[in-house]
Amino acid sequence: MKVAVCVKHVPEAQALRLDPATKRLDRSGEGTLNGFDANAIEEALRIKDAAGDGEVVLVSLGPEKAIDSLRKGLAMGADRAILVSDAAAAGSDLVATSAVLAKALERETPDLVLFGQQAGDSDGAVLWAAVADRLRRPLVSQAAELTVSDGSVRAKRQTEFGYDVIEAPLPAVVAVSDAINEPRYPSLKGIMGAKKKPQETLDASALGLDGALGEQGSKTEVYTINDPPPRGDTRKIEDTAGAPQQIVEFLAEKRLL
Amino acid sequence: MSTLVFLEHHEGAFVKNALGVLAKAASLGDDAHSVVVGSGVRDLAATGGKFGASTVLVADDQQLAAPLPQPRVDVLAKLVRDRGYDTVLFGQSVLAADVAAGLAARLDAGLNWDLVDLVNEDGRLVGKRPALQDSVHVDVGWKGEPRLALFRSGVFDPAETGREAQIEDVEVELEDFSTGATMVEQAHAESEGPSIEDADIIVAGGRGLGAPENFKLCEELAQALGGAVAATRAVVDAGWYPYSAQVGQTGKAVSPKLYVAVGISGAIQHKVGMQSSQTIVAINKDPNAPIFEFADLAVVGDLHEIVPELTQLVKERRG
Amino acid sequence: MRETIAEPIDPEDERIEVGIAIVGAGPAGLACAIRLGQLLEEQPERAKRLGDVPVAVIEKAKQPGAHALSGAVVNPRSLRQLFDGRRRLAEMPFFGEVREESVYLLTRHNALRIPAPPTMRNHGNYVASLSRLCRWLAEEAEAAGAMILPETSATKLLVADGRVRGIRTGDRGRGRQGEPLANFEPGSDVIARVTILCEGTQGHLTGVAIDRFGLAGENPQVWALGVKEVWRVARPLDRVIHTMGWPLRSSPKYREFGGSFIYPLGDDMITLGMVVGLDYRDANLSVHDLLQELKTHPLVRELLEGGERLEWGAKTIPEGGFVALPNRLHAPGVLVCGDGAGFVNVPALKGIHYAVESGRLAAEAAFAALGRGMTPWAPGALAGYDEAVRSSFIWKDLEEVRNMRQAFGHGFWRGGALAGVMTASKGHLPPGNARTERDADQELIFSGRASDYPAPDGRLTFDKLSSVFASGNKTRDDQPNHIRVQTRVPLVLGHAWERMCPAQVYETQSAGSDGLVSVQVTPSNCVQCGAISAKGGRLTPPEGGSGPEYSLT
């Protein structure tokens, strides 16, 4: 069974900055593997371990140095990594990114495609649905539990209302929540062996894409970056006796009761 | 502008967030159409006008009974193609996010998410959203049509207009792959309180509580408010509360509608985990506690006296 | 001892075998790796004998440079020699050559310009961020063929048959009580033909090796604590500045030796720090707060006006100099380099170029011992390293300034006079060697100096927790405590630790009737500066990847 995991190389949390010139995330500094993607890699490895065989392939769209994040996944135990890296792909929005990933995934024809819960940089939690649509495959998202058997998957999906249990035939696309597992630490042997595992870097033309990426292929844009609106003045209460009543009134005013 | 609002519903009632988005759509002028997708939803759909829709489209089919996203993408895609809507709006939810993103791919349309407002500015539609843990606000836009938007939970209030909408049934055509995923067992209301990541209201306790037993004060207040209980790193370190409740840089990041910080000083390690909460109420006896610098309501006083009485008053208020 | 020394335990097929294991990706370790890469390229047959991974560099931080912190003004001679034309200084990530420099004697409100002491002249030196320099050196080391293993702590020295066999890496995924968590991953034995310890100040295995093989010199090592910040500034600083005097007190009763540095990092950033010897006597002394106080001085405040703090960090510096060096730098199968060995020229505030040079010499000695038919762990096989270091400028420089730091134990003015004599006589006067006393043995007193510490305003001055945040520290909370320290101690000691620690790791509770206080330890705040090790406790490496994530320090 071949499981593909889509991963992202994101800027380090404290280095998250918008570049005022391009109005996009400044990806020039240090980056790291998106923490939520580690859950997806871990789940893929568990599926492989349980089955006794199979292949875990990592797929990513990013700058050249994203290979470092892919190597972390290889160190955890993934078998292969594919990086789509093309200057023309910078600034790709959901539409463009999903198009690129779908093309890369089609090339691999995986039985299962896994995503992590969200991207740590854009806080986007939407990519898998777009990719599933392009691949024309059934989708299950927010999986807090996942079992694979006999050509189908069964997932416990976390929603605002509790847990749904959903089944879908393979090949399918599943996005896992961070509650699903505790990602393993790579062993030292794993870290040392990561560089030797197959790593492929593709550009847009290798995937047969033209113009469908980057800003050109994107259907959204950023107009301006502003300071957040001020929080508003802090209202102060200094009298213990009257405080509870005043708090209740404040909450009622804000329609929080 | 011709707008379609995805009117999500759950257990026989419209989801509040979706109604808020509908009210916003109606306020932007022109008619706001809405679509209700499900099985046996005609009666519910008929009430859509009350909340601002001029037309309520009903896609009613057995295959749409379960709240799964992909069949809804088929329904909405067909509506957009057949009727030419240039704007489609969603209120954030697990379901709506999947529908909106699937629709974006289907129609090669721009989707902006986590929006807190939508305005017409200089002849174009501009979305407003926070970014980078609410440290900046960005104005975003769309290239081409339709324009898809996903709004943050609770930013708009529903508005009852009391009008009668036109109800229209629409044809349902589903792709094969859309019905691949099936609902084996649907979620029902949780018996326990919400988890802190999902909670709209959080009551968090810190070292100012003085002793582990005093977490009871937070628990009772949380229960009265219908929220979840969280804790700072300091008290989790000291063993007063489990790690799963820890909010902060090395715990969970939350952004509920209301965050009540009880006996918490507000060190930056904690702040970064909760600073994008919509409303912050802080109760602390130290007037110089850093949390008072970013709280909306700063209560300087003895939490041991304030919190129990507050809990009582809240219970009475909520009835 | 069993916690820090062991025989290899992993079965043969689980062991990791490398040719040479270098512990620490700082300037010494990376220089060592780079030099080895050069030598192995020249003699590929020797490389073959070292197996699949000829050179491995084990680093406990998230990445090389993340735990590296210094001022710094670097003497480029060692880097020039290391790269020997393969790379020019212009390609190295320095922030420019030192143009002007000033030394000031500060009082609360004034700054008196004094001539720079001869040991402090920086003409021809370069301003650097050590963190950034290490990131670059790491890339060079990898290009030269070294395998760098970040997020990997070296917790035990593997010793068998009287020789060092390698190191054992730390477990990951243990809970607070040491219990294995769901993702528990045990450490591994890394077996190497030669192990080169480049751990920096308070090096964990360095201390272990010195004890185990009796390498210690006559005098105990002593340390200073440096706390620094990096700021974005509105106006460029055109010179390198050092200050003495305020806020430190000159009376010998307090033993406050140190000063501050303020260096430009290009045109739009400044780095500034406070360095104080840990033999101070006042239990209320907090180097972190002295740095905050320093920033309120008109001279400094003006430089930072309109600016913004970007980063913060802290680290100890070995200050014993020549008289506190180990009497031997090698033992069977192991070599000791850099700050771990104490190669710091205190009056000149220089250690980086000695680290680089010692790493280079260690590489050559290790390489020489790997010739055909040679056993690198045979007694004396690595003695060439000691000889090389003793004939190098490291030894010569340190010997020349050997008594200067100790002179300041007599107070600032007398010390200054003595220092002048030493410089003029190139170290011949006064004759003999001073002695050092353990920092932890200094008697502690209380003074009212804490009332001078400024209340943090969040713009110019900051509290310790905000500073820990600014170091990039996001250490996982539920892991075992890596700090070995008594938790019931005399009031004055507990209080001293509370003030001393720049990261607010130690907090005292109220004293019991026995005069002892309980000390609460918050290990996840720890930025691994090493101060506690100088003052009665012991820092060991936490889980790999923990600690600060410096980038500009």
Q: Could you characterize what this model shows?
A:
- The complex is a heterotrimer of chains A (257), B (319) and C (553).
- Chain A has a single domain, classed as Rossmann fold (3-Layer(aba) Sandwich).
- Chain A is α/β, with parallel strands linked by helices and 257 residues long.
- Helix content of chain A is 27%, strand content 30%.
- In chain A, the strands form three sheets. In chain A, strands 11-10-9-12-8-1-6-7-13 form a nine-stranded mixed sheet, with helices on both faces. In chain A, strands 2-5 form a two-stranded antiparallel ribbon. In chain A, strands 3-4 form a two-stranded antiparallel ribbon.
- Chain A contains six helices and 15 strands.
- Chain B contains eight helices and 18 strands.
- A seven-stranded parallel sheet of chain B has the order 7-11-6-1-4-5-12, sandwiched between helices.
- In chain B, strand 14 (201-205), helix 5 (215-225) and strand 15 (228-231) form a beta-alpha-beta unit.
- In chain B, helix 3 (69-83) packs across helix 4 (94-107) and helix 5 (215-225) packs parallel to helix 8.
- The two termini of chain B are 43 Å apart.
- The mean pLDDT of chain B is 92.
- Chain C has 553 residues and is of the alpha/beta class.
- Chain C has three domains: 5-84 and 132-217 and 325-400, 3-Layer(bba) Sandwich (FAD/NAD(P)-binding domain), CATH 3.50.50; 94-127 and 221-321 and 442-539, D-Amino Acid Oxidase, Chain A, domain 2 (2-Layer Sandwich), CATH 3.30.9; 404-433, no CATH class.
- Helices cover 25% and strands 23% of the residues of chain C.
- In chain C, the strands form seven sheets. Chain C has a seven-stranded mixed sheet.
- In chain C, strand 10 (154-160) and strand 11 form a beta hairpin.
- The mean pLDDT of chain C is 93.
- The chains are: A alpha/beta (257), B alpha/beta (319), C alpha/beta (553).
- Chains in contact: A-B, A-C, B-C.
- Chains A and B meet through helix 3, helix 4, strand 9, strand 10 and strand 11 of A and helix 3, helix 4, strand 7, strand 9 and strand 10 of B.
